[in-house]
Amino acid sequence: MALKKDKQKVLGEVFDDARVKSFLNFQPPEGVNGDFHVLEKAYRGMNIDNFATFIEFFLAEGRDLNAPGPDGRNLLQQIRSHRLGVDYAQLLAEKGAE
User: Fold this and answer.
1) What's the pLDDT score for residue 12?
2) 66 contacts: CB under 8 Å, gap ≥ 6
3) pTM for the whole structure
């Protein structure tokens, strides 16, 4: 499953902590790493502020920012070239993704 080249802005939706945490429970399709799956879902579905909150919850659970996607690359590696993913990539790198 390839990510879209550019991240579309998510506008107008406010997530409380419970909604942000709910992304941790998304079940991956068979053969997809669960940590990668929830990271990708959060990236696609959250604005940067909600994503930053999500990353804190994600890391608090001891989950892996470097989890590989189906193509073997982690989320940071996949989104570095996304024009609208710059802030997300910077946050992931700051939190330890390689």
Assistant:
1) 56
2) 74, 76, 96, 97, 98
3) 0.85
